[in-house]
């Protein structure tokens, strides 16, 4: 890998690992096609104890966003309150009162999925479509996140790289997770990774941010997947992958004068569903305690028509 030639590396990986046409010219799901009925039955059979874990961060003003590219933390506003009800100003009969609220936020400000229309490669969207014909001011007209909503449920696998490879359960910022790190972690956990799995990679950065403050969590230095894992992400035929970091891949990126090069390969070329800013802490503790790193996972995006990303509230059940 020539660190001075991101263009060449991206082009080579895009050609080598492209899934364009694999599921037909009209495909809207990408690697979610690997997550079929059999895989869901396999995932459901993993429920033994019935314990569940939320994998979502909070959606509130105390989140990590600092306004980069107009990404802000959620703004929650009450429309009706208990005060209004107690004062009798709501106009309802026979003593009825109620509360209502509204939230305004970027769709990718906290725990979220990147949709297939989120990233382009030289003007091409997923499956080789022209970006300008896919995402317009009306939204993603072809691969909007709503198409994925019924499909993201199945066998989840946690790879706690922070615990296996790191120090004190955490990887340092700038640590590039390689294929060897991923396979070593899977072996240490006694778990397999393969077709149709939803893989969760814990680095420990979120735990550090909660302890020390958000700092540059949103967009700054972070542990994450190495660009060299593109082949593993393609070869394993996983359905989706999510991390506890802002940007999924290692930051600073491994090339000079580059920005999120692994995104440029895996979303528009592989068609891989990527999740970011997931809270894997409680799940990781339980996996370490009981030694079981595979579980039932449901993580449907909100079916927001034409969206290129979505908040998500994933739940793992063991």
From TrEMBL:
Keywords: Hydrolase
EC number in record: 3.5.-.-
UniProt GO molecular function: hydrolase activity
SUPFAM superfamilies according to UniProt: Putative cyclase
Top-level taxon of origin: Bacteria
A Pfam family reported for this protein in Swiss-Prot or TrEMBL: Cyclase
Transmembrane feature ranges: none
The protein's name in its UniProt record: Cyclase family protein
Lineage: Bacteria, Bacillati, Actinomycetota, Actinomycetes, Kitasatosporales
